[in-house]
Amino acid sequence: MDIMMPCMDGWNTITEIMKRGFTKDVVISIFTARGTLDHEKIRGLELCIHDYITKPFDVKKLILDVKEMAAM
């Protein structure tokens, strides 16, 4: 999920996904260019976010993370 999106930001989108009960078997990771602000990380964890990844990111690490998530 990207945090900075037009119309509805990533936080509101995640909230809607959760409110509608679409979280079963879904892993949400945040991809953002905003940096690693502590209050956003905390907010993300409260919303059951798996990971907070800042751009630019290491593609090899991302692939390993996705494989790890798929094995959950």
Outline the structure in words.
- The protein has 72 residues and is of the alpha+beta class.
- It has one domain (10-70): Response regulator (Rossmann fold, 3-Layer(aba) Sandwich).
- It is built from three helices and two strands; from the N terminus they run H-E-H-E-H.
Q: How many independent structural domains?
A: 1
- Whole-number mean pLDDT: 81
Q: Can you count the helices? A: 3
Strands, total number: 2
Strand order, largest beta sheet = 1-2
Structural class: alpha+beta
Strand proportion: 5-15%
Could you list the spans in which at least 5 consecutive residues all have pLDDT below 50? none
Distance between the termini: 19 Å
- The CATH topology assignment is Rossmann fold
Order of helices and strands: HEHEH
CATH class: Alpha Beta
**Shape call:** globular
Name the CATH superfamily classification.
Response regulator
Measured on Cα atoms, how large is the radius of gyration? 12 Å
